[in-house]
Amino acid sequence: MAATKSILSMRQWAYMEFGDENAIKFVAMATPEDLKANAEFIRLADSFVEVEGGKNLNNYANVDVITKIAQEQGVDAVWPGWGHASENPKLPNTLDAMGIKFIGPTGPVMSVLGDKIAANILAQTAKVASIPWSGSFGGPDDGPLQANLNAEGTIPDEIFEKGTARNVEEAVEAAERIGYDNGIMIKASEGGGGKGIRFVDNEADLRNAYIQVQNEVVGSPIFIMQLCKNARHIEVQIVGDQHGNAVALNGRDCSTQRRFQKIFEEGPPAIVPKETFHEMELAAQRLTQNIGYQGAGTVEYLYNADSNEYFFLELNPRLQVEHPVTEGITGANLPATQLQVAMGIPLYNIPEVRKLYGRPDAYGTDPIDFLEERYRDIDTHVIAARITAENPDEGFKPTSGSIERVKFQSTPNVWGYFSVGANGGIHEFADSQFGHLFAKGPNRESARKALVLALKEVEVRGDIRNSVEYLVKLLETDDFKANTIDTAWLDGILAEQSITVEMPDHDVVVAAAIFKAFEHVKSSTEDVMESFRKGQTGTGDIPGINSFSTEVAYMDTKYNFQVERISPDVYRLTLAGNVIDVEVTETAEGALLATFGGEAHRILGMDEPLGLRLSLDGNTILM
């Protein structure tokens, strides 16, 4: 996903600025699995270097491999994307020693931000509010801890240690001082992506969970923090340049999560009052400037809508996958902005930033005081949906396999991009996300409706399962419409199984019978034709093409249909004395358009080891 988006964005910028989309050349790394899966970024890149396959430590997360290829290929810069090695300070440090530009923050700054304890201390130093944690109880001797970076670019050890819980007993002591009333989070300072984090509400569970976190992120310092109940996950998109400037490009609400993994992202964060959000932006800018941050990053907060309070969560030292939400509301091309910052261009000289701040001359050079001046009012709302190869019927369990076709049609209000093309796939080492859709409108409800309509038209054919149908159901809940959700909302729905994707049983059974009947006619006809081609003129099998029986098994019940083909496109199905005539047409891409019960339906099917996987009007059913 990252490589695909960066190439598209930077080429767009190169063409708009220089009239030549090929002014920048892209060299990609590619594993054998990505080559086999027909990954889109390989097609887009000007050239690629094949690297060892398997887990990402062999390739995309291997700093030695990345830097070796960068040097051999003579590149000027490396764009790290997100995930993999994007937050490993060894990458910018090694590239810097080679004389190759890293498009992102410096190694020392990345190192300190990659540690959640250090990041919290830096946030407190920049007067960014923190939720009670083991580094900020509020007393005279225990916080809030504050420190500036030392000459080595790190937090002084003696201050850092005060924020940690080095063993179970220290964790218990910290939790008692914070209090269990709201719940306690045990977090690995070097964790992320849902790893190294546990929630508890009593001492016994804390003692067990501490050991689990220790084992999950081995060697990482651990800290304790209060759970922020009824919290929203609010992000501020920041960019710092090489001249000490920091701009906040609005932000995003990423509260729809399951097990700390985002599902929907939207912006601007409509739940936060305008003045409160401006305070959050200023706090993020102060933090960015205090540490000399360069490049794009995200300051994340927990926000309580009832009390209008916000608390620092972390600063991600990279671009986020959901950054196109910010692009849609501000007009700033973020990968291109990263590139310009890496080239040494001040933020106030970047045309898209100047336009956002209402400067009449987009190519002017007069400075902008980003802490004092405000950008223009945002008049657009964008909601994004991640398209993943996950099975919502099994708790969003990742799936892998081939993808025959992805059908998606952009509209003036919805656009998206996918990391796989036709006849591609998702392999076992790949991230489960393979697509991202973005819908815009003048307000949140317009954007929501546009996204629902777009998702209903998405069609993914292949071996994988996907979450598209479930996303539509979530978007149409009353809670989402009213914007009353929080970070625990989706996990609660999954635990209660209160949302399911269901189709009427009779429609499912009839659709399955139609698919099986059509496949029977097609294969039987081909068998007869093959016999004729071999010079065999027997006609005994021809009647079986137009009159036969077929069985459908669904929900522990078997249905035996008698099928009569009364014209080339009309099938008469008989079941227990009930008769229905169905008109069937096959589309160019292999879908069946079937009219029965006074309605037209779209049917796709695939035989699997566990049975028939049926797609009926965009809903997937495993028979």
Name some characteristics of this structure.
5 domains; D-amino Acid Aminotransferase, Chain A, domain 1; eight-stranded antiparallel beta sheet; globular; alpha+beta; 623 residues; Rossmann fold; Dna Ligase, domain 1; 20 helices
Summarize this, please?
With about 625 residues, the chain is α+β, with helices and mostly antiparallel strands. The chain contains 20 helices and 30 strands.
Structure explained in plain terms:
The chain has 623 residues and is of the alpha+beta class. The protein has five domains: 2-103, Rossmann fold (3-Layer(aba) Sandwich), CATH 3.40.50.20; 104-131 and 233-377, ATP-grasp fold, B domain (D-amino Acid Aminotransferase, Chain A, domain 1); 132-226, 2-Layer Sandwich (Dna Ligase, domain 1), CATH 3.30.1490.20; 381-496, ATP-grasp fold, B domain (D-amino Acid Aminotransferase, Chain A, domain 1, 2-Layer Sandwich); 505-622, Glycoprotein, Type 4 Pilin (2-Layer Sandwich). It contains 20 helices and 30 strands. Strands 23-24-25-26-27-28-29-30 form an eight-stranded antiparallel beta sheet. Strands 9-8-13-14 form a four-stranded antiparallel beta sheet. A four-stranded antiparallel beta sheet has the order 12-15-21-19. Strand 24 (557-567) and strand 25 (570-575) form a beta hairpin. The two termini are 32 Å apart. The model has no long low-confidence stretch (mean pLDDT 92).
- Named CATH architecture of the largest domain: 2-Layer Sandwich
Shape: globular
Low-confidence stretches: none
Number of domains: 5
Remind me, CATH topology of the largest domain?
D-amino Acid Aminotransferase, Chain A, domain 1
Q: How much of the residues is beta strand, in percent?
A: 25-35%
- The level 1 CATH classification of the largest domain is Alpha Beta
